[in-house]
Amino acid sequence: MKRLLFACLSLTFMVPLPAAENPLPGAYTVGFASFGPSRTDLFIARGDGSGVRPLLSESWNNYNAALSRDGKWVTFTSERGGSADIHRMRIDGSARELLVGGPAFDDQSVLSPDGGKLAFVSDRGGQPDIWVLDLGTRGLTNVTRHAGGDFRPSWSPDGRWLAFSSDRDSANPRLSFSILHSTSIYVVRADGSGLRRIGKTGEFEGSPSWSRDGKSVVFYACDIANVNKIVHPKRLRGVTQLMSIDIASGARTGLTEGPGEKTSPHWLEDKKLAFVRGGPEGGLSLATGETVLRGEVSSPSWSADGRRMVFHREADARWPPSQRWKSLDPAFKLVRTGVFPSWLPSGEQIVLNDKTAGILHNDIISVAADGSSQRTLFHDEKRSALAPEVSPSGTRIAFGLGNFFQGTQGRALADIALINIDGSGLTILTDGSGNYGLPSWSPDGSQIVFRGAGNGEGRDGLLIIDVASRAVRHIPGTVVKDNFPSWSPKGDLISFTSNRDGDYEIYTVRPDGTGLRRLTNIPGNDAHNSWSPDGEWIAFASGTHGFRDEAVLHPYNPQPYGEIYVMRADGSDRRRLTNNQYEEGTPKWSRVPSERPAHP
């Protein structure tokens, strides 16, 4: 019932509300962090992994390619239009056409054995379902239609059935910021009838692929603890195994054993089982132990005769990235930056944290707005410097400094610290008695609001410190789970996120604690709120739409369901700006106007 409610509310959430009288902030840019790749390219090779060459090499992401049965055509996902759309072309690059497009997330396509239909994943119905496109009539059918997430469709050899993975029976909260989904294997007829689960619940099963005789399905499997290792920001090593299940009897057979991550299995000729091997080296391996292709390999697909294969891999790993990102709403420009970006008033420099790997961000760096001229402003060997915030004057940087997360070294303690814009003059403002972080300046630069936890004594919740006197006061009514405070440029309100009413939602409150107001009210967590320079809009990250792919296939993405939204300061006119399978968050507005784009 809760998931059904989520599906209904998510559809309502996507309908634009009537525009308020305030003008659109088209002259401003929203920067944000993403755990997705900077660019992925498609490659084609012989079936044994030799002769690798680029299939496409473009300045945008192309991924999840699949060969037709005869090996003459390839379908793939491309973000060249701003969202994930599905294209088809011949393997020589000719006759390219858009098959499925629009603002929805469309991905994980595979042609039927006769080439007449295309199965794919799309959230055009409000949640990720398996859809089928008739290439002759161009008719679309939602085959699975469920409030859960359905992923990775695979056609049976006779074209009558589809196998797929789904988190519809997940025992874990799908919309939690910290709990992963579990997935099971299902089969369904191509017309949507006969749906049944053939896998187990409570574990993680993914990427089903049919045997050549159509009697069984092979897939990878692991427990949730190993999923958590694989997607952890520190990229811990996990273990998965390959399994086969008999469609008629349900009998399960283990096909591999031992350590290592093994995903994306596929039966080749002569009963050879190929799969992707995770880990630092990666590669494409056989169950016999032979490695046929080294290096990163993602989502491999073979022709029926096994003579050709396609796959994708990351082609650009620069950090921090500086990428213009096509927004789903052209009134709001997007640029992908690093984590916790903060612009100088001139707009020529950005201060941010140094990396995504690991839950600790030890360095504060400065880069030019185009991503060049990177230099380190602050480094500490033991303490994390988290969420730098440039002062309104552009002369100082506030940030949290300490051990923010409870570990083996005792209490998680951190302070609010200041440095000059050149990195000199470290000053600790707070007294070290609690876990203090996520600072935001008042418009005049005289005060800082921040999150406080672990102290008690009236210092749990949102706190304000006078920079000159270092006097600290608690904002009345705020509690320990109130987080990510952001001071409005108008000075009258502070936005923050809180789970005081269930899910994490966005609220505003006056600096004196009066006027508490809830701005978001939908299932899923909303956080990372940030004010536009004119104080009329709030950008934030939302997890309301859930997963769009199997979590195991996206290492380093512990929360792969965060999308960037904006809304008016009163919570109205919510607009979605991103839609993909990666974790995105920490949005921050540029302070410098640029050319105002026209709004449709």
TrEMBL record:
UniProt family annotation: Belongs to the TolB family.
Region (Disordered): 576-600
Keyword presence, Membrane: no
Biological source species: Pseudoduganella umbonata
Name of the protein in question: Tol biopolymer transport system component
Database matches in InterPro entries: 6-blade_b-propeller_TolB-like (IPR011042), WD40 (IPR011659)
Top-level taxon: Bacteria
Record's signal peptide: 1-19
Keyword terms: Signal
Keyword Signal assigned: yes
